[in-house]
Amino acid sequence: MITLSAITIASFSRYMRSSMMDALTEDYVRTARAKGASSNRVLYGHALRNALIPILTLIGLSLPAIASGALITETVFNFPGMGLLTVEGAINNDIPVVLGTTFVITVFTVLGSLLADILYAVADPESDWEVHNVTGPIDPDGAGGHHKQSRPSGRSATLCPSRR
What we know:
Elements: H1 2-24, H2 27-34, H3 39-77, H4 82-91, H5 95-123, E1 127-135, E2 149-150, E3 155-163
Antiparallel strand pairs: 1-3, 2-3
């Protein structure tokens, strides 16, 4: 566990430091300081909140990387876990085991992406999720395989992040 988390913590620390240094030089931080906001309010309320946005994307994408790191680490140290199980299944041509562990890693990837989106919405209050109209081909019999809701106007609705 320490082997897997050491690299992740080190890279997140570097990204967070860089992102925070960039946020502290922005105009909104200078404006907050000029209006007399306390140092803690400026640091945590303004700079940290905006510095977290790129970090949240990395957190969501790091879950599959941790799973693939477990595969290598558990194989090298002969530690029983899902990574070693996957390698042994591949060596022994145990297809159901390899498919099962691949499915679990895929679920982690999707959940990580969903977690990043949810955390992004919490950290950035200016972002809204709203429905936009997208003009696309009209499929009269509805068998085109599109997963968009059809509207009477011939337009389809998609859920898109937007900034106001």
